[in-house]
Write a structure and sequence with these properties.
Layout lengths: L8 H21 L3 H22 L7 H35 L10 H6 L1
Length: 113
């Protein structure tokens, strides 16, 4: 069974650096679509890992189970990071282009912090 193992420390560093670079690229060009790309990628990746977890064979699945569970955990953390970065870049773009945002998505977050 092929597993895109994102629990490897080198893979985590590469994914995180690519995600951070895309976030800051979106911030600089003020386009919220750029940080949405890694968000979509991680959503697809978590669906793949969830399907693999659901379809694990009953025999000898101990090593695969822990690996895929770690991958799902990393995917959820990366989705959390990219979702808030998307909201942040979207807020920056709305303020720059003087567009009215449908809702102030991050106001509830900053008021609690």
């Amino acid at each position: 069974m092929f597993i895109f193992d994102v629990t490897d420390p080198l893979t985590i560093v590469l994914l995180l650096s690519a995600t951070v670079l895309l976030i800051f690229l979106g911030k600089e060009i003020k386009k919220p679509l750029v940080p949405a790309l890694p968000l979509i990628f991680f959503l697809i990746l978590i669906m793949i890992h969830s399907l693999q977890l659901a379809n694990l064979p009953k025999i000898n699945n101990g090593e695969y189970y822990s690996t895929i569970l770690g991958c799902v955990t990393v995917d959820l953390v990366m989705i959390f990071i990219t979702f808030f970065s998307y909201l942040w870049v979207d807020d920056i773009a709305c303020r720059f282009y003087k567009k009215k945002s449908i809702d102030n998505s991050l106001d509830w977050f900053w008021k609690e912090v």
